[in-house]
Structure formats: C-alpha cells, structure tokens
Specification:
The structure is a homodimer of 444-residue chains. By secondary structure, chain A is of the alpha/beta class. Chain A has three domains: 161 residues, Rossmann fold; 198 residues, Nitrogenase molybdenum iron protein domain (Rossmann fold, 3-Layer(aba) Sandwich), CATH 3.40.50; 32 residues, no CATH class. In chain A, 45% of the residues lie in helices and 15% in strands. Chain A has 16 helices and 16 strands. In chain A, the strands form four sheets. In chain A, strands 1-2-12-11-10-13-14 form a seven-stranded mixed β-sheet, sandwiched between helices. Chain A has a four-stranded parallel β-sheet with strand order 8-7-6-9, with helices on both faces. In chain A, strands 3-4-16 form a three-stranded antiparallel β-sheet. Chain A is globular. Chains A and B meet through helix 4, strand 3, strand 4, helix 9 and helix 10 of A and helix 4, strand 3, strand 4, helix 9 and helix 10 of B.
Chain lengths: 444, 444
C-alpha cells in the first residue's frame, strides 16, 4: 500500500511504502527554478545596473504599484518614522521591543571573538572579527507586513557591529507599515527605501544614485526575489536565499495530537508553496493528528485555509516510519527549516538531528516562539539547504580575516620546511622571500 | 602625471593621479567571467548529471588526458598510497607532517562551541555545532602539484569533524603526485579520485555511480573549475571559489625594500593572471622597491619570470599614496587575498585593515609562512571578495542549527506578545499553536 487514506485532505503516508515519485516531491518541495525565472528578470537587473534611479523608479511603478516623482522620495524621511510611533498600538510597540531585546541578546552570544594563539615558538596566529561595511536587508511586504522579519535581520546586523544598515521593503501606494518602520528605527537602521521585489535586490547589489551598493544582502522573498539574489551572487554575498516556509514535527505517542496538528499547519499557513509535515512512528497517533488537523483546517480563515489545502495536495502530509530511528533519519534527509520535537528523551533525540534550521524542543515549544520572540533567527535555510548551511546570524554580517605574526627566530625555525614545500611545488620566490630575510644586511 | 616611469616593467603609480581606467583594471583584476564560460561548460555538467560515470570517464580522457578502463580505477587504492610513502623524500614527509599539525592546531582554535543560554525565565535558546555529512575537496594538479592545498583543505575538514571527506585531483597519465597522496592519507581523507577540472566539480556536485554526491565543495582551481563551482551553487554549498592569487604589501619607509620586493613578486609568480602590489606613502621608497623588484625579476627562472612579466603589465604595480592613511584606505578598497604589513606600529595598523583574506604582520612574516605552515588557511577570498567573506575554515564544513526550549510557564509569559505579533502579521495558526497548549485538557 503506497499511501494510507488518500481520500482525506490530510494524507498519511507510510515511509516504507513511499513511492519514489511522491518522495521526490515531498523532499524537493517548491524549489525556485532559477533558469525559469532568469530570462524574465535579467533585463530588469541589467537595466537597473546601467540606468540606476531612472530604471528603478520605472520598475517600482510597474511592480510595486507606487508612484514616486523624485528618486529622493523612495527614501523614508524622519517625520514618517515619528508619525509611525504615534500610529501603532502600545502593546505592539511593547512586543516589538521585547523581540528586539531577545534577538539582540541571542545574537550577541553568537559573536565570535578575536584571538591570538602561539602555534610554535615565535609564530603567533590569530583570527580577527570584522563587521562588513554595509548590509542590505530585504523585508517583504506590500500585501502583508512583516515587522518581525525586520527585527530578525536588522537587530542581528546591528549586533554584528555593522555601521551602515539599509533596508528595502515594498510600499503600499507609497506608504510603509508603521510597525515595520518603528522596528527598523528601534534597530538603528540607517536608511529605509520603499522598494520591493527584483528591483530592490538589483538596486542594493549594484547601487544607484540614491541606493548605496551593499556588501551583503540578506532576507527572504518570493521566487522572483530569491532568483534575483541567486543571479547576483557575483556582485554581493548572498548565501542561500530562503524559499517558502517549512515546518516539520517529529513526535512519538507521548505527544499531544492536538498540539502536533497545530504545529503541522503552522508553517503551512504561510502560502500555497509552504510545507507542514509530521513524522512519527505510530499509525494510531498519525490518525489522531489527522483528525485534529482536519478539524483545525476547517476553522482556518481565508486565505490561510486555501493555502494549506493547496500545499496539503503537494508538500504537506503525515509520515509514518517503522521505527523512531527511521523517523529521525527522514528528518535528517528532509532537513527542515523549522523542526518541532515532542517525544520521550527529546534532548537526546536533539543530538541525533543533524539537519535543521532551528529546533523547538519539548511540548511547550511551538515554532511560533522561534518565529518571533525566542531570540534565535527566524530567517533560515529552506528546501533542504539546512544540510549545508545555517540561518542568518551575526556571521552573515562578519568577516574573520586571519593573522600571522612571526619573529626572526620563529622564521628561522620554519625556514627549512617552507623551502622544502615551496621548492617541491615549484615556487622559487616563495622560498626567496624567506631567504632574503637572512641575507647578510645589505641596504639598497 | 598619471603614471610615474611607465617605461619600467615594474610600474609606479601615484594614487592621487590613478586614472579611472587603470584603477578599474587593478581593482577588478582577472575575474572569471562566468557568462563567458557557462556556455562552454554547461553541456559537460549536464552530461555528467545525466550519464554519470560514462560521461565522467569521457571527460577525464578528453581534459585530464588520462585513460581509465573501468570507473573503479579512478579511485586511488591502498597499495598506491603505501607506495607513495616509500617514494617521497624524508624531509618532505617531515614538512607535510608539520604543516598538518599547525593547520589542525589553528583550525581547532576556530571551532565554535555548542551552548545554551537563558533568554528569559523559562526560555532557553542555544546553538549547536554540527559537521556536514560529506565534504568534497578539489586539489588542483596535473602540470604542477599542490600537497599544501591538500593539507589546507583536508586537515581543516577533519578538524571540523566531517566524517566523509572525498578529494578530486587530476592525474598525470593516471598517476598522482606521491606527496599529495601522502598528505591526503595523513589527513584521513576517505576517498581520493583521479579527476580534474570541470568534470571533478560536476561529479562531486551530482554524484555518479562511483563518486558520492557531497554537501560542500571547497578548493581552488583555474577559471573553468571556478566557473563550474559557481554554476553548481544550487546543488551544493560553494562560497566564493578562489580566483588567481594576489599578494599586497603595505609598507612605509621603515621596511626593507629588498624584502618588500620579494613579497611583491611572491604571489605574482603563481600565474599570468596573479597580482603583486605594493602600497606605500613614499616615492623614494617605491623607487627602491622597484630597483630590487627589477633585479629579482631577472633572476627568476621560467615559467615564473614570464608569468610575473605578464601580470606586471596588467595587475601588478607599486602604488604611492599621499599619506599612509590613504594607503590603508586603498588596501581596504582592494581587499587583497594576502596582505603583508611592514611599517611603524604594525599592530595598530592591523586594526585598521577591514578587508583582507589573511594578514602577515611585521618584517619577519613573509606571505609564504602563511601559504604553507603557519596554521591559518591559505585557501582565501580573491578578487575583492574579502570585503564580505573569509577564507576556508572549520566553518566551511559546519552547520550551526539553533535550538529553543520553552517551559509551560515560560510559554505563558510569552503568550501575549506572540499573539500580538502573529495576529498583526495575519497568521492565525501561529497564535493558535500557542493557545492550544493552554486549553483545558482535552485528549482526542
């Protein structure tokens, strides 16, 4: 039996009888096909590179639907920010402050330190920690608003010590969400531009007369924003731009099916391309989770309900493994963005999780804690990228150049070995640059 | 006056009168134009993706010039490694051991630690440190041999805790350099394949029947290898593949012009596309360095002399700034792979260097110390990439997933704020996944 109970909107699939094709769809999820989009957006990127503000204004009009008479107007002015503080509810301001405090607190714990060690007598090696000069953050918006994404990116860049932080985020009819503006201001963002989509990424990568060229771009976006980031990797540092949200729950029968169902649908509600998956080792438990999920699904308001129904047809499901060990293996193979673990000895199970963006451990750690307020960053690798990368952190905004300091005596001790290997590899000047330092003094 | 004394092979250029065009050539150096090469190598990448070993063997024959009857023969067997130990001179073995010891020692100091901190009462956040599953290293070869590159990559991946390390390196008529083999074996490499160029990168990125698919590819190569890495960034993690070598010397009049000239030509001898640059604030000193450099150049054997003469026409020169502060600014703008500093208060000057792959500080720290034996990695960002990234380190081979652990009480304390922000952003299930945990007990 390939798939148990296909007739329900919430599918239960046995891992042992997962068909190759279904498995591939679930594991690949909705990955942006960069080649598909490259042709469409390359002319936009080139136009902005060549024509700067003039092209930028044109694409903002076309894609963000916002009209700016002068390029100066795309930058947010101080009075708009002051006005925003007056507009937002006091509770939201309090919440944003708490989010910033926690993100900043956690980011600071991640900061690597500068150090120097003696490798051999007379040979000191070290590692410095230097913030990049200028960071470009992308905060999606337009239809929805994401002050929490602003906090995740900007508080982290600030904690890394970046001096110049600029943000691009799309406006709605030329106006930005006040909460997002307040979040940016509280994080100490230097410049905020009302630019969305491909044109925002291009403007930050190449720079225009108004938007500075940045060294690093970080931030999530839709397929077009993501493709633009990938195509501009030659211009700026962009790790792996996050794709659609994913949440996976690893649960055994000790978990509460009602909590698990809520967690399953939590990331799935982001959009039609998102994924919510439960992995367990009990068919009975899976059935209970399904019952709860079906019930919850019907209660969801639109458009969320429609989104979840859509991704339940493709990427979201409940998977039943033969053993809990197999379930853990599947988690590692899937490498989810967000993982929730509720099971016996959850802390021990955590140690066996190799691939995940972030892991919420235990019954009272739903993913939404991590999404907003826990401290760790919520801008995380998706699509299986957690196999080889980590989420946004202070490291996104830092360089760590190394240092070598050698004394004359130290160099003397290394001389023979340097000559041996550089002669063997055929680099005479490498050897000579050591030898010259031991010639009899000769000033020229 | 744009350029002082153009008639010499070693040009001296005043920073204040650097023409836009010359400045652009020096700053851009020989950057691989990926678009130029993409068309040529894409069919090779696709062929290996689709046809595995069969295609691989074909390209090894065509580009590496090596004939293998069976795909099994591209993997190095144990007897070849044992034979290699007998072949290499005892001094070289000693040198390799010392290089490995120091690279390993420094790499271990770079290792981030797992930790957990209390962010708020009842809310613990942490960061784990997990090695990637399988690393693919590329060590160039064929015409020349690079046991030192093998050490830099493999000892670092091993220090990071990577369990499966595979290496691709081109053979000469089906044979590998014994020193490179010994270096790989001493670093604990698991599999060594006799594959070079584009076909090596494709084999590791996609996997074939013989070569495992890897999670990360690291290692330098020529323009084709570099372009293949860039094109396959969707498949595996590849940061910024290093381009041609660069060395920059920042020196004031307290430096010995003879040492500075040697250091200038040291990285320049790598190839016709390499760069060796001196930045100083004294024309008199620049003239002295030039005199030494011209003298040294004539003494160089071929092909090194030809390489240096070639890059002296384009990327290598002596630059004279008005002030030492301007000289430092130019170093940061150039963002060299290797930087040598010899000047008054060199340790203070070091603090003002923001962009460099590695920095050798003081009169007795030539770059070749760092190239081979000091400990810090010599696989470093080139072409100005040091503005936003760092060289190969244990971090190249690690992921750092975050963790959130919340108690019921802790979640209760966060509840109102999570609801506030997730309601504001329009995610009902995010709010519900917290609320459900505080419903009156109800088992389903």
């Amino acid at each position: 039996m390939k798939c148990v109970s296909k007739n329900s909107e919430v599918k239960i699939i046995k891992l042992s009888s997962f068909s190759e094709a279904e498995r591939a769809i679930v594991l690949t999820r909705s990955k942006t096909d960069i080649l598909d989009i490259a042709g469409k957006i390359s002319p936009i990127l080139k136009d902005i590179k060549l024509n700067g503000n003039k092209a930028l204004i044109k694409y903002i009009r076309k894609f963000d639907g916002a009209e700016f008479d002068s390029p100066k107007d795309i930058e947010v002015k101080q009075p708009e920010i002051q006005e925003a503080y007056k507009t937002i509810p006091p509770q939201l301001l309090k919440t944003i402050r708490r989010c910033i405090r926690n993100v900043n607190k956690f980011a600071k714990t991640q900061l690597a330190k500068e150090y120097y060690v003696q490798i051999e007598p007379g040979l000191i090696a070290g590692r410095r920690v230097v913030p990049i000069d200028i960071a470009g953050l992308y905060v999606p918006g337009g239809k929805a608003v994401y002050p929490s994404v602003m906090v995740m990116l900007a508080a982290t860049a600030r904690a890394a010590g970046v001096k110049n932080i600029i943000v691009c985020t799309p406006s709605k009819d030329g106006k930005l969400d006040p909460a997002t503006l307040v979040a940016a201001d509280l994080c100490g963002v230097d410049k905020i531009f009302k630019i969305g989509g491909v044109q925002a990424i291009a403007a930050m990568a190449f720079g225009t007369e108004t938007v500075p060229k940045v060294d690093v771009i970080a931030g999530p976006g839709g397929p077009y924003v993501s493709a633009a980031q990938k195509l501009l990797r030659e211009e700026v540092r962009i790790d792996f731009p996050p794709g659609p949200s994913e949440g996976m729950v690893l649960a055994d029968t000790t978990a509460n099916p009602r909590f698990v169902a809520a967690d399953m649908l939590q990331e799935a509600e982001h959009g039609p391309d998102s994924a919510g998956i439960v992995v367990t080792d009990s068919m009975e438990f899976a059935e209970k989770v399904r019952k709860e999920a079906v019930e919850l699904l019907e209660k969801l308001p639109e458009p969320r309900k429609g989104y979840v129904k859509e991704n339940l047809r493709k990427y979201s499901c409940i998977i039943v493994a033969e053993t809990f060990g197999d379930a853990i293996d599947f988690v590692n193979e899937y490498a989810p963005e967000h993982l929730q673990i509720t099971c016996k000895n959850a802390r021990q199970v955590l140690k066996r999780i190799k691939n995940a963006g972030t892991v919420c451990v235990g019954e009272y750690s739903p993913m939404s804690v991590g999404n907003f307020i826990a401290g760790p960053n919520a801008v995380l690798p998706t699509g299986g990228d957690a196999k080889f990368i980590s989420g946004v952190s202070v490291d996104t905004f830092l360089k760590k150049p190394t240092v070598e300091i050698v004394s004359k005596k130290g160099l003397g001790r290394l001389r023979k070995d340097i000559a041996c290997i550089s002669d063997f590899e055929g680099f005479p000047t490498h050897t000579y640059s050591v030898d010259v330092r031991f010639e009899k003094k000769r000033r020229c």
